[in-house]
Design goal:
The complex is a heterodimer.
Chain A (H helix, E strand, L loop, with lengths): L14 E2 L5 E2 L10 E10 L4 H11 L4 E8 L5 E10 L1 H13 L3 E7 L4 E11 L3 H10 L3 E5 L3 E8 L1 H11 L4 E6 L3 E3 L11
Antiparallel strand pairs in A: 1-2, 3-5, 3-6, 4-5, 7-9, 7-10, 7-11, 8-9
Chain B lengths: L25 H11 L4 E4 L6 H7 L5 E4 L3 H15 L3 E5 L3 H16 L3 E7 L15 H5 L5 E4 L6 H13 L5 E7 H5 L23 H13 L3 E5 L1 H5 L3 H11 L3 E3 L14 E4 L6 H9 L2 E5 L5 H4 L10 E6 L13 E4 L2 H11 L7 H13 L14 H11 L5 E4 L3 H9 L8 E2 L10 H11 L5 E6 H6 L4 H6 L4 E7 L4 H10 L15 H8 L2 E5 L5 H10 L4 E6 L23 H6 L1
Parallel strand pairs in B: 1-2, 1-3, 3-4, 4-6, 5-6, 7-8, 7-10, 8-9, 10-11, 11-12, 13-14, 13-15, 15-16, 16-18, 17-18
Helix pairs in contact in B: 1-2, 1-6, 3-4, 3-17, 8-13, 10-13, 11-14, 15-16
Classes of the chains: A alpha+beta, B alpha/beta.
């Protein structure tokens, strides 16, 4: 004997949000995206970068920058990954990263971690002294000069580099290259050892 | 050791070791690694770049099954892995051989089936030059494996295979691949492969944190409306016995996912069978109304949950999984228990303070069973109903019979109307939903369990995709009964077109379909046809009695659709029992 039709059946009042979390119908919780810096130690071998970047694109994690470079140990490399995601997405990104076989360890760096980016800015060489003056303001320095152009190197936080580039715009910027962030925890803490 | 259905297992497998010749090439090291890992069968297809490996196989005791297509090799290996619990092995050459394996590898990845794929590759010096039959196999398969290895050296290629084998089997099982350039396998080496060990960066959790277990057990004991949701991970972890003990001791109703079919006996009073899009009405009512769900080894696939907003909306979720990345991925876990399902079930068993007070709830589940029974009409004046064929088969076959399927309506009927009581007897393609899985999967299943009966339900569309595998079943003299539930259509697509596309049946109906009984005979198998209710039992008997592969072409009612049904993204509690209900939702 068929029981009640679909719309006549007993059903609970609760519900879940899109992240599968039970919500109070009166007070829905939403997670705002925030920026997170993930630092990962990985095996230094071919294919690791593509494996990590493919993971981020396949799982639709919003990635802002990814830098990779050697460490003191020839067999390992460090990746610094900036993502912008709601809290559950950041958790999920960490877990999925840890699951990759060549990934040795993953940690989210805290807000006060040391973060540096680098930019090279090539501007017109017409006013070299003015260019130097602006570079000084941002602790930058000219690293190459010709009759037509000056190339300036700036390191620092993202905000500082954004501001510097804005300031250089008065000199007819010809080309810019920027790295993503490199970051390390402050104090004695490292990825290998908790202090 | 895996929890195989009632198959007597030899505890002691200490057959005298024959003296092994030392390896002289990379290829021999590859084969030696497989031998060391206990490989009995390899499913594969020859080809240029993999020839050195096959040449080394010539001297090995490992049995090789030459498949008709590499896709079949990966599916057969997958089914072998499901039934034995140990990694199934498949071989293919470079280029098209490797790309043909891809569907089966992706299938294994979605269902966490242990598979190791070894692919030939062009010699290292040609890699990157677009050489003949070159393809970036590691690049293609990296996202669909636990790890894909590119073998770089004859001295280490054996270690690569050993590690890939161990990794496929460890923790949450899944596929791995080793790409074998021809110069690496042909190259000389005297290095024997190391023992199968997982990479040092791969951690396998065992027991869950005791404090978390305690809290979860208390929440479950407190519940008024508890359920257990048993996923494929329960079978993979050989935790079916532990699950049965736990559920019976604490009298908690058990729902399975589709891959979890067989983890709990469907004839037990606590069983609500399986939930999800085409799950039973009672399972879907229980999953919707529970206030505490113990979910074990499931990844909360969307075909199970429907829309997550309406999935078990009142339930605290205790999620047991060996893969931390599954915790709170789709459904938030109030009590995450990371560990091996069998270990954690034992921990929970000990930690439970009491049997939950849930008499009313169990009565309610029984009411739902009465209200939404899995039945169907069999009017004499209508064509044969597929459900009837499945049920008749289920009635006469032993409990440990292995059922394989393709993907589509027939798969749903085979899962709904067969009574499963043992783990590793349900062999199907769930996550990837691969039409064509059935024919080769039955080959892998039969070789994995030669003493168990193997029945493969297939659809006409699904069967046609891998029918060439029949040549393998005949050549290997495998006693498999294939049952084609033939409705002359890609039935599931047609059902959706009728339900959600105003009956616009685009590319879902076959104006002509081969005569499968004659096709079977052409392959050297026995062929049968069923047109009506008249001779169903006799035909089943004859096909089962035939010692070799047989095909029953069962012409079923083309108008029959699969119900209950929760529309994609819908509310599990609002399943439709018929077409009219679909309009109400």
């Amino acid at each position: 004997m068929p029981g009640p039709a679909p719309d006549e059946r007993m059903r609970p009042k609760g519900r879940r949000n899109t992240q599968g979390i039970r919500v109070d119908p009166e007070a829905e919780v939403t997670h705002e995206p925030r920026q997170a810096v993930l630092s990962a130690l990985v095996k230094h071998r071919p294919g690791v970068l593509s494996e990590v970047s493919a993971l981020f694109s396949r799982r639709q994690f919003n990635i802002e920058s990814l830098t990779v470079g050697p460490t003191v140990d020839d067999d390992t490399a460090r990746m610094t990954i900036l993502i912008e995601e709601p809290e559950p997405g950041i958790d999920q990104a960490k877990k999925q990263l840890r699951k990759l076989v060549p990934v040795i360890s993953v940690r989210e760096l805290e807000g006060e971690a040391v973060r540096r980016e680098l930019a090279l800015v090539k501007v017109s060489g017409e006013k070299p002294d003015d260019v130097n003056a602006v570079a000084d303001m941002y602790n930058g320095q000219a690293v190459d000069a010709s009759t037509d152009s000056v190339t300036v190197e700036i390191t620092g936080s993202k905000q500082k580099i954004d501001a510097a580039i804005e300031a250089f715009k008065q000199f007819d910027v010809q080309e810019i290259v920027r790295t993503g962030a490199a970051a390390l925890e402050r104090g004695p803490k490292t990825l290998e050892k908790d202090v | 050791m895996s929890e195989r259905a009632s198959v007597p297992k030899e505890e002691d497998e200490t057959e005298p070791e024959t003296e092994q010749e030392p390896v002289t090439t990379g290829a021999q090291s590859v084969i030696r690694a497989l031998e060391n890992a206990g490989t009995d069968y390899v499913f594969g297809v020859q080809g240029g770049a993999i020839m050195p490996v096959y040449d080394a196989l010539y001297d090995s005791d490992i049995n090789h099954v030459t498949m008709a297509h590499e896709q079949g090799a990966s599916h057969a290996a997958d089914a072998y892995g499901i039934v034995t619990g140990d990694p199934g092995v498949c071989f293919a050459t470079s280029g098209p051989g490797a790309t043909n394996l891809v569907t089966g590898i992706a299938d294994a990845n979605m269902d966490s089936d242990p598979v190791i794929a070894l692919t030939g590759q062009v010699p290292t010096e040609f890699v990157g030059n677009d050489a003949f039959q070159e393809t970036d196999t590691v690049g293609i398969t990296q996202p669909i494996t636990k790890e894909s290895y590119f073998a770089a050296d004859s001295d280490t290629v054996g270690d690569d295979v050993s590690e890939a084998f161990a990794l496929a089997d460890a923790g949450r099982q899944g596929p791995t691949l080793v790409d074998l350039p021809k110069d690496v396998t042909q190259g000389e080496t005297e290095v024997e492969p190391g023992a199968p060990e997982t990479p040092e960066t791969y951690e396998v959790p065992e027991e869950a944190d005791d404090e978390n277990v305690q809290e979860a057990a208390e929440a479950l004991a407190e519940a008024d409306r508890p359920v257990i949701l048993s996923g494929g991970g329960v079978i993979k972890a050989n935790a079916s016995s532990a699950l049965r003990e736990f559920a019976k001791e604490y009298e908690i109703p058990v729902i399975t996912t589709m891959p979890g079919i067989g983890s709990f006996p469907e004839d037990h009073e606590l069983s609500l069978e399986w939930a999800g899009m085409h799950g039973t009405g009672y399972a879907n009512m229980a999953i919707t109304n529970t206030d505490c769900m113990l979910a074990i080894g499931t990844r909360f696939d969307d075909r199970l949950t429907g829309g997550v907003d309406s999935f078990a909306p009142d339930a605290e979720v205790i999620h047991v999984d060996i893969d931390p990345a599954e915790i709170s991925k789709n459904v938030y876990a109030d009590y995450p228990l990371i560990g091996d399902a069998r270990e954690v079930l034992r921990q929970l068993f000990d930690a439970m303070p009491r049997v939950p007070d849930a008499d009313e709830w169990r009565d309610q589940c029984q009411v739902w069973k009465d209200e939404y029974p899995m039945d169907y009409d069999t009017p004499d004046d209508e064509p044969l109903k597929p459900q009837y064929v499945v049920e008749k088969f289920s009635d006469v076959t032993p409990d440990d019979t292995i059922v394989c399927t393709g993907v589509g309506q027939h798969q749903m009927w085979a899962s709904q109307f067969w009574e499963y009581t043992e783990p590793r007897t349900w062999v199907s393609s769930h996550g990837l939903g691969t039409m064509g899985y059935g024919v080769p999967a039955a080959i892998g299943a039969k070789l994995a369990a030669p003493d168990q009966e193997v029945v493969c339900f297939d659809g006409d569309g699904s069967f046609l995709m891998t029918v060439q595998g029949l040549s393998v079943a005949v050549r290997e003299q495998l006693d498999i009964t294939y049952v084609v539930l033939n409705n002359e259509a890609v039935g599931m697509v047609r059902q959706w077109q009728d339900g959600f596309y105003e009956g616009r049946r685009m590319a879902s109906e076959y104006p002509w379909i081969p005569q499968f009984d004659k096709l079977a005979e052409a392959f050297g198998a026995r062929g049968f046809t069923l047109e009506s209710y008249e001779n169903v039992e006799e035909t089943i008997q004859e096909a089962r009695d035939y010692d070799g592969p047989s095909v029953i072409d069962a012409h079923i009612d083309p108008g029959e659709n699969v119900f209950p049904m929760v529309p994609s993204g819908g509310d599990n509690g609002q399943f439709a029992l018929n077409e009219d209900h679909l309009d109400m939702i």
